[in-house]
Each structure stands twice: as C-alpha cells, then as structure tokens.
Amino acid sequence: MTNIVQLRNTGGFTRMDNELYEALIGADLSGRELRVALAVHRFTAGYNTETARIPAATIASLANLARENVSRIIGELIRQRVLYRAGGSKAPIGISPVSEWKIDPKHEDKKAKPETTLSVKSDTSLVSFPTHIKDSKDINSLTGVVDAERQPEQQPAEVPEAKPVRQKSSMPACPHQAIVDLYHEILPELPAVAILNDTRKRHLQSRWRENAVHRDLDFWREYFGMVKASAFLTGKVAGRMGAKPFRASFDWLINASNFVKVVEGNYHA
C-alpha cells in the first residue's frame, strides 16, 4: 500500500504554494481559524483566482462550523492579516502574503509543577474495646484487645439505581413549506413547486438534518441565492447540439449529490 495518490485518478486537486503550506502548519491559529483559512484557499486557489466572493454559508458547510461564527472568524483572520478583502465589507476575500501575517499568540508553555504525593499510614488493625465484667476478680481488667478484622462489617445502605432519563431531541423540525416559499421568492424563473409531497419532504428533511449549518433559513436563502447567480442553473447557457438550456428544478436542487456540488460552487465561473 502506498500513500502516494496518482493525480490523474482523482476528482481534481488544489495546488498550494509551499511557503503558504508551511506557514499554515506552523501558524498559531485556532482550529476554527485554520479551517476557515483553508476553505478560503479552496475557493480561491482551487479556481485559479486570488480572491473570491464566498458566502458564509458555503464556508460554514465546508468547514463544519456554525454559520453565525464564520463572519466573526473571517474578521479575526483579516485583523491578523491572514486574509484580506479587495474592497469593502462585502468585497471578495483572499489569502494575504505570509510576510504580512500578524498572528496573535494563543498558547503559552506552562512550567510543569512537581506532583506532590501524600501518603497516609493506617494503624487501626487493633482496636480497644471495654470488656464485659463478669466477676469482681476481673475488676482490674477494664479493657481487652479485640481484632478489628474479625468484627462484623457494617453493610452500607442500598441506594436504588437511578433510571436513565431519556432526553428529547433539541433539533428543530424541518420547515418544509418555508424553504419552498424561499425557493419561489428567490428563483421565480425556475419551475414552481405545485405539490409538496412526501418524497420532497423526505429529501428536505435529509438536507436539514445532515449538518447544523443547514438548520437555518438564512442558509437556504443564501443557497438559493447561489443558484440564482449561476447562469447555467438558471437556463442562461445554451444547450449542446441545439438542445434546450438546462434549468435546475426544486427536486434537482435538493438531491444529495447536486446539493453538495452547488454548495461547493461547482456551477459558478
């Protein structure tokens, strides 16, 4: 078995400059910051561009982070000059040159303190108890020595076993109709959903449950916004050999494999 992957047999790859690769390995970034930086690199260098306008929901899905945290982490990386924006707050972002990075120190080595071991010596194997005086001649023997190991042990009171408490799931229910309404609002040019049947509900439920990022209507608003920005998915690209232009349907968009491709930006130039 070999660890070398033949590139011609893969589904594609993203090149990374050696200087950037080594800088990321040694950078004192948090785990979340590193994941966001790698996601930005994936959507810039992976598409042979220095900067890109990447929706927060896309980074959140790829990096397995909560969407509301992504903007904050991007802001931190920009402040530390790991990332930069080519303009205002909504402008495309990219990876800054390594020489410009100003990363905050996050970890300090603490001197190990010697462990102190306490030892307790027990000397209770023999315990003195007063003996029962049967005769006056035994009056001079007021105490006797009793072996504690032979004394009957006091059994602890039995504690009834606690029954496990079944916790209810905190996952919110999938708002099927609200997602369909967003689809109609943002993509009126695509085929409308006339019937919200059980099959469509199951597919929506699967997309909703597979990632915490997806359990937010703002994610679905951004998702349909990405579809709208794609000329191919909205039927603005001529079909091959005189065929009709392709237009994505609601069922196509909530299909598992197509969903991943759209989120990863495969249908954007």
From TrEMBL:
Any Gene Ontology biological process:
DNA replication
Q: Which InterPro entries match?
A: Phage_lambda_VrpO_N, WH-like_DNA-bd_sf
Q: Where is this region: Disordered?
A: 149-170
Tell me which Gene3D superfamilies the record gives.
Answer: Winged helix-like DNA-binding domain superfamily/Winged helix DNA-binding domain
Superkingdom, natural source: Bacteria
Where the record annotates domain Bacteriophage lambda Replication protein O N-terminal, the positions are 12-101
Q: What is this protein called?
A: Phage replication protein O
What is the scientific name of the source organism?
Azotobacter chroococcum
